[in-house]
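Figure 3 (text version): structure tokens given as input.
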């Protein structure tokens, strides 16, 4: 997921956005290759989009049977145990949600 674009000029240039999306897509493909190789029978639809993460995930999963989001292990006793994206998905998803803890 690309961060929301702020400012003006090149940030809104479709060619720049397309190039950034391609770079991010290549990185995502590299990360997912290992999992695709391990689980070839699992369908995976990877998308690269720009905008607020929680909003885009909720849109993408609006017809999902299950939303799966990750969260990091927080070692600090201060703050919330989950981040803002997982929090938004838990509260606004129309599908059941699984929050997977990872480091």
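Below: residues designed for each position.
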């Amino acid at each position: 997921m690309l961060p929301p674009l702020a400012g003006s000029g090149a940030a809104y240039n479709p060619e720049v956005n397309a190039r950034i999306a391609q770079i991010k897509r290549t990185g995502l493909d590299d990360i997912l290759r290992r999992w695709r190789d391990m689980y070839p029978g699992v369908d995976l639809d990877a998308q690269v989009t720009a905008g607020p993460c929680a909003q885009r995930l909720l849109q993408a999963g609006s017809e999902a049977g299950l939303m799966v989001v990750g969260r990091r292990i927080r070692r600090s006793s201060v703050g919330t145990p989950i981040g803002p994206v997982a929090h938004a998905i838990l509260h606004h998803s129309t599908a059941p949600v699984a929050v997977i803890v990872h480091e």
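Strands lie at 67-72, 97-102.
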